[in-house]
Specification:
single chain, 258 residues, alpha+beta, 5 helices
């Protein structure tokens, strides 16, 4: 998912096709292609199965709170609470595995950066892409091309990390957590150190996007949904236009960190 309009493609031939037909860098996953619809449909559907009882958004607030507390206590990692126009879901942020990437997300979320944005790219049985500031206008043709302000800094375990002039952070290719259903993964342009604020949530097993795999895609995972996966899957099934943009905008009211 890149800032060059993230495009996910499982084969070199498809990747070459999309490279020759894509617009100048925007921010989709380096290999998430506009027309890329999972070809191994059966396998992806199987990979996207979730335990609906475990992730039920209708569970009482105290139950969801308990789940969140248990997850946080088990890992000491922060929990991000996503409040969208289609419901809420929560994700553990892997501060213990990918502190540079997770801290970037926490810094942006705490500043209110993501509030008011929309999911600008949704492909059923594949992923949901989010985090472009241009998506505050849900129909903006520039959605998928933006990122954080350049030359800014954020704290990571007491150390200051700098974003470059384009708002991009250093690649953190250290943890080998795969792009499985429910994981949060960084979008980039396909070039090194080109991730900023955009990320995607996998709704299928997309291991061809793993940075440690044999392909060209380099998308490190930095979190995973721990509650409300059915909300994520519902967003994934919204109707979209030819550009994979939801016809009825899906708004991010807020992202809170606990």
């Amino acid at each position: 998912f890149s800032q060059v309009r993230v495009r996910v493609v499982p084969t070199q031939a498809v990747e070459e096709h999309f490279r020759s037909h894509t617009r100048p860098p925007t921010m989709l996953a380096s290999t998430v292609a506009r027309a890329m619809r999972p070809t191994a449909a059966a396998g992806l559907r199987q990979g996207s199965l979730v335990n609906r009882a475990r992730f039920s958004p209708a569970a009482p607030a105290q139950v969801r709170s308990a789940r969140r507390s248990m997850a946080a206590a088990a890992s000491a990692n922060p929990i991000a609470i996503f409040d969208t126009s289609m419901g809420s879901f929560e994700a553990e942020l892997f501060m213990d595995k990918t502190p540079v990437t997770a801290s970037n997300f926490v810094d942006l979320a705490n500043s209110g950066y993501y509030d008011g944005m929309h999911f600008h790219r949704v492909i059923d049985n594949f992923m949901l892409q989010f985090g472009c500031p241009n998506s505050k206008d849900p129909k903006s043709p520039r959605a998928g091309t933006g990122g954080p302000p350049g030359n800014t800094k954020y704290d990571c375990a007491g150390k200051s990390i700098s974003r470059d002039a384009g708002g991009n952070i250093p690649d953190e290719l250290v943890d080998k957590t795969s792009n499985t259903p429910g994981t949060l993964s960084m979008a980039n342009t396909g070039r090194p150190n080109s991730g900023g604020s955009q990320f995607f949530i996998n709704t299928a097993t997309n291991d061809f996007l793993d940075w440690f795999g044999p392909g060209d895609s380099k998308h490190p995972v930095f979190g995973k949904v721990v509650s409300g996966m059915d909300v994520v899957n519902a967003i994934g099934k919204t109707k979209t236009d030819r550009g994979d943009n939801p016809t009825v905008p899906v708004l991010m009211n807020s992202i809170k960190i606990q």
